[in-house]
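Lecture notes, part 5. Sequence design as translation. It can be helpful to think of inverse folding as translation between two languages: the language of shapes and the language of residues. The source text, in structure tokens, appears below.
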């Protein structure tokens, strides 16, 4: 695409210009608005040329020559002649070459599109780039893959008000762009994504076309170089239904194509998952962590003595066949022998939390033979959706912690950052809180700090980044915000936003995001396409779904 330049004004001499910012006067009859990319060229004393690229981040109009506020009324009735000053502030994004001198007053300024636009935002330097949306003028915006695949960075932090900021929609769009653009190349087919469906059923239809997708929406995907359709390789899991002996997924409106998941007693012991059953308990200083660690160690030793495909445990010669039986035996005998030195008050606190875990997790930790076949398996497909939205908070915490711990351990055993793994998790402020202790927070912090070297990238979404563990947010290479609460926008976690973009963040509509990334010195307001996959049952193309179900039955 060739650059289309339009003269719009000149650099002002009535206001100071610096190498990094300056003001331009807009010529009568021209329009300059927020987010426009401009270019100007100045001549240096040695005769060489210096090109400035910049983004408009403030636009003002005022009367010149009037002294009083009431003069506006006289101007309106044409009794007082004045001139209108139409000016725009430009934040410099790039200098070519990098000679840091201010532009000269009177230099001609142009608004650019196409190739010059790409150069102004360093897109021309990105070896592998993924489309992440459009500007308001329709120009594609890209992110450097090297800041998502661990080469130079990883992780995405997305913040915004619930229900308005479309955080999860943007996270899934980024994932779709990664898997369906050419950025990942041949490695895309082996890359994996773990998506936790935290609220509603929005993410349970990723493999289904959205019947409300318009021709304009399809054109938007084509302009970004993406196909307009659902995710192509998806497996969906829902928790085993409570109070039912057979393994049935506990689902809502989606019934077909969903598998039940649970853990066997042996997996619970072998993978040392007891700590995740105690999320929300008293913090580490209450010494509960000592008992939890001790009991985990004893259960892991017991798990070594049986066959891997046995769902039950044999502990000290006793066969344990249900989670209830395990809890009761720990309470009655094992705890006394395994942690005799713990204070009685601490043991009682442990027991209270243990029975609370039994209430919330009893249907997820099983000893039936059938349970062996219902582990979450993310190796056989590209995208794995784990539904947790109908679980109680304690059970949600357990599922997220257990799966992420296993995923990180698997990556460490392989000893390679490839294939890549992307984790999408909403409500990050609940799983990695800034205050208090949580074993899940430790896992997420491990992903944030070491995930880059292991090829694991976290796409975390939260209403308030100020309530998320600082190091989790700080390690995110890409930061995006949707609609923000005005008070939240003033917190330190949003200092990457300029004063103007902070104000704009309080007014954003669904489908718009402000995105900051390392190579671009200013945040960019963008919009992203309407999901090409269904996000609720009313968007499902029922005819295609019936045909798919018939095909699957014939194949089986």
């Amino acid at each position: 695409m060739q650059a289309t330049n339009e003269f719009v004004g000149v650099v002002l001499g009535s206001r100071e210009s610096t190498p990094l910012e300056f003001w331009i006067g807009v010529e009568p009859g021209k329009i300059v608005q927020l987010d426009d990319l401009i270019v100007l060229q100045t001549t240096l004393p040695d005769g060489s040329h210096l090109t400035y690229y910049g983004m408009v981040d403030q636009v003002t109009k005022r009367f010149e020559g009037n002294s009083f506020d009431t003069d506006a009324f006289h101007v309106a009735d044409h009794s007082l002649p004045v001139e209108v000053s139409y000016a725009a502030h430009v934040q410099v994004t790039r200098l070519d070459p990098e000679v840091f001198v201010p532009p000269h007053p009177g230099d001609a300024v142009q608004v650019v599109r196409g190739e010059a636009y790409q150069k102004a935002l360093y897109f021309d330097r990105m070896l592998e780039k993924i489309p992440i949306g459009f500007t308001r003028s329709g120009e594609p915006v890209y992110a450097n893959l090297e800041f998502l695949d661990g080469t130079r960075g990883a992780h995405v932090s997305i913040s915004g008000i619930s229900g308005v900021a479309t955080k999860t929609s943007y996270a899934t769009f980024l994932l779709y762009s990664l898997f369906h653009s050419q950025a990942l190349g041949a490695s895309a087919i082996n890359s994996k994504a773990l998506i936790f469906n935290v609220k509603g059923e929005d993410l349970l239809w990723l493999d289904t076309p959205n019947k409300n997708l318009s021709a304009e929406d399809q054109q938007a995907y084509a302009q970004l170089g993406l196909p307009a359709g659902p995710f192509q390789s998806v497996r969906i899991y829902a928790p085993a239904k409570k109070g039912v002996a057979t393994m049935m997924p506990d689902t809502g409106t989606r019934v077909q194509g969903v598998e039940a998941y649970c853990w066997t007693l042996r997996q619970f012991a072998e993978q040392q998952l007891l700590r995740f059953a105690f999320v929300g308990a008293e913090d580490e200083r209450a010494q509960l962590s000592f008992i939890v660690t001790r009991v985990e160690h004893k259960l892991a030793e017991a798990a070594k003595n049986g066959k891997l495909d046995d769902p039950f445990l044999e502990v000290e010669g006793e066969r344990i066949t249900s989670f209830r039986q395990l809890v009761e035996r720990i309470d009655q005998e094992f705890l006394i022998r395994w942690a005799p030195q713990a204070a009685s008050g601490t043991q009682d606190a442990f027991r209270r939390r243990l029975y609370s875990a039994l209430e919330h997790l009893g249907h997820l930790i099983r000893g039936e033979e059938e349970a062996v076949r219902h582990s979450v398996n993310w190796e056989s497909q590209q995208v794995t959706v784990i539904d947790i939205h109908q679980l109680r908070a304690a059970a949600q915490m357990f599922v997220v912690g257990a799966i992420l711990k296993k995923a990180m351990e698997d990556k460490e055993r392989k000893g390679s950052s490839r294939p890549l793994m992307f984790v999408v998790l909403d409500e990050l402020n609940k799983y990695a809180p800034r205050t208090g202790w949580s074993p899940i927070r430790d896992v997420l912090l491990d992903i944030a700090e070491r995930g880059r070297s292991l090829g694991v990238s976290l796409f975390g979404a939260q209403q308030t980044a100020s309530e998320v563990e600082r190091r989790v947010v700080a390690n995110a290479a890409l930061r995006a915000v949707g609609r923000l609460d005005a008070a939240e926008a003033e917190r330190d976690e949003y200092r990457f936003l300029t004063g103007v973009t902070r104000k704009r963040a309080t007014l954003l509509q669904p489908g718009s995001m402000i995105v900051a990334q390392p190579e671009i010195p200013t945040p960019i307001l963008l919009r992203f396409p309407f999901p090409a996959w269904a996000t609720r049952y009313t968007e499902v193309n029922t005819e295609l779904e019936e045909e798919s179900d018939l095909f699957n039955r014939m194949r089986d």
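The translated text above is only one of many valid answers, since several sequences can fold into similar shapes. The chain is about 30% helix and 25% strand.
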